[in-house]
Design goal:
By secondary structure, the chain is of the alpha/beta class. The N and C termini lie close together (8 Å). The strands form two sheets. Strands 6, 7, 8, 9, 10, 11, 12, 13 and 14 form a nine-stranded mixed β-sheet that branches. A five-stranded parallel β-sheet has the order 2-1-3-4-5, with helices on both faces. The chain contains 14 helices and 14 strands. It has two domains: 40-157 and 293-367, Response regulator (Rossmann fold); 160-286 and 373-391, Response regulator (Rossmann fold). It binds benzoic acid. Benzoic acid (BEZ) is lined by residues 114-116, 137-140, 187, 239, 266. Benzoic acid is lined by residues 114-116, 137-140, 187, 239, 266.
């Protein structure tokens, strides 16, 4: 297992040099308990609060706040501060933004992001710095594969995990020729890649993969191409405002009437009021569904609606579970953010009675969870069944797996 303690971070070196200087000057280092050094626990949130993914960032944040409020607004008995930074879902700004939180703000914990490209930069720095990090959405496979680390956890999914089962499902339905369409960045490419893997393994064939620059929402030319290719079905990944536009354009262009639309669940999650009738009948796979009749889901949806006036979605569930993970780990160490090994062990051992259903951690710190098959019916992501039970990302290339 790759050890967090193995890595001496840049910050540790700076800190040690500063302490050594003080010690030689005064020849005395006061024994101040780590907890007393910083009154408030700092949790850095690198999430999109503007742009196509803004609604996702807000739901993650508000559900975290809800979970923390339910726990008395304390972490291990200590007050805390959420330091929110707008990632703008921009990978080019991700390293600077991560450094602002880790080095500038000296956060104890880091959480976010939504965008897979941002996640790769964030996880690389967090690993080097040893900052305990909880990825609350981005599915970049590498985060819990070759870039995995003892201090990196994910409360969401891997891009592979939610899309591979749809490949199997669509082949089982007798579909033979499929076109996939997505944004041209890590998440889109990994999601259509995982779908293709499942679909081709089960005998189907992907006749074309259409990649559109992120976050473009001009789909007309692509829809014309899809209509000309006449596939049995389309598989798509878009999310947030882009998903709203794609699903509406797909219906309005007349393509939906001839070619059924399937996708990763983000296509219809948190978007249904804006998509309206255009989304009816769209099939997706995801690790959550609004209509799950689980006591934890019913209670959570009710509390989220009361707190925000909005309906919960998968992003809210991931934010809520991120708060639960922090709360439990900090309770275990009685608020001692310096007890890194114990915090990691507490997180690894956490089991969740989540709104999405029970889940646990794999060795590479990715959730092992059920993936549901959903269909949009009467404005709701109705659960058709479990596409695959207890799906575990293979964790390929992770030394801990
Ligand atoms: C991603 O970039 O990993 C992502 C963004 C939105 C929804 C799902 C995944």
């Amino acid at each position: 297992m790759r050890s967090l303690l193995r890595t001496i971070s840049r910050r540790d070196l700076l800190r040690q040099t500063a302490v050594a200087g003080l010690a030689s000057a005064a020849n005395f280092i006061p024994a101040v308990p780590a907890i007393a050094q910083k009154a408030k626990v700092k949790v850095g949130l690198l999430l999109p609060y503007s742009g196509t993914y803004a609604a996702l960032g807000h739901n993650i944040t508000d559900a975290m706040k809800l979970g923390l409020a339910e726990a008395g607004n304390k972490l291990g008995g200590r007050d805390f501060e959420l330091v929110q930074l707008d990632s703008e879902a921009d990978p080019a700004k991700a390293a600077a933004n991560t450094n602002k939180l880790i080095v500038g703000e000296k956060v104890d914990f880091l959480s976010g992001p939504v965008h897979s490209g941002v996640a790769m930069a964030m996880a690389k720095i967090a690993r080097e710095e040893g900052t305990l990090t909880i990825v609350s959405n981005a599915g970049a496979n590498a985060v819990t594969r070759e870039m995995c680390g003892a201090n990196i956890f994910r409360t969401s999914f891997s891009n592979w995990q939610v899309c591979f089962p749809m490949g199997t499902e669509m082949a089982r339905r007798g579909l033979k020729r499929v076109v996939s369409v997505t944004w041209n960045y890590a998440a889109g490419k990994e999601m259509i890649g995982a779908f293709r893997e499942g679909f081709e393994k089960a005998g189907g064939s992907v006749v074309k993969e259409i990649l559109i620059p992120f976050p473009n929402v001009e789909f007309q030319a692509n829809l014309t191409e899809i209509a000309a290719l006449k596939p049995d079905a389309v598989f798509a990944f878009f999310a947030g405002a882009g998903a709203v536009k794609f699903v509406k354009d797909y219906a309005e262009s007349g393509v939906k009437a001839k070619i059924p639309l399937y996708g990763a669940g983000f296509l219809t999650d948190g978007t249904l009021p804006a998509q309206g009738a255009a989304a009816e009948g769209v099939f997706t796979t995801l690790h959550y569904a609004d209509s799950l009749q689980l006591p934890a889901n019913l209670r959570f949806r009710d509390a989220f609606k009361k707190a925000t006036g909005r309906d919960a979605d998968v992003y809210a569930v991931q934010g809520y579970d991120t708060a639960q993970l922090l709360i439990r780990a900090m309770e275990k160490v009685k608020g001692d953010t310096g007890a890194t090994k114990e915090l990691i062990r507490a997180m690894e051992e956490a089991k969740f009675d989540s709104p999405r259903g029970a889940w646990r951690y794999s060795k590479s710190h990715n959730p092992v969870q059920d993936v549901y098959l959903r269909e949009v019916r009467n404005g709701d992501n109705a659960v058709v069944g479990v596409a695959e039970k207890e799906v575990s990302d293979p964790g390929t290339g992770c030394g801990m797996a």
